[in-house]
Amino acid sequence: MAKNLIQEKAKKFALRIIKLYKYLHASKKEYIMSKQILRSGTSIGANLMEAEHAQSRDDFLYKQNISLKEANETKYWLELLYEAEYILKEEYESVYADCEEMIRLLAASIKKLKS
Predict the structure, then answer these.
(1) How far apart (Å, rounded) are the C-alpha atoms in residues 64 and 49?
(2) First to last CA, the chain
(3) Which superfamily does 5-114 belong to?
(4) pLDDT tens digits for 39-62?
(5) What is the pTM of this model?
(6) Is the dihedral of CA 82, 107, 4, 56 positive or negative?
């Protein structure tokens, strides 16, 4: 059974976030924001996986909304890490673009579910 597009992208995004966390932790000795972005960035996909076995349509929508909130939080941590000069512009722009794509996909999915 093939996973849907959003789940696949969320997993790839989570793997990027894990690599970013490892880099920040080992190379930059940044422990607080790196832990926060690790939590929120990996939570997107985790909530989407939970939604697969939702008890109802409302439960499914709820998990989708949590994923969207986590993606928005991840966007915030990326902005802080960049503005605090922990990550370079190229790194930031690349991961940030992926994060914004996740937000667009989730928002579109939620909008479709609500209609």
Answers:
(1) 10
(2) 27
(3) 23S rRNA-intervening sequence (1.20.1440.60)
(4) 999 999 999 999 999 999 999 999
(5) 0.94
(6) positive
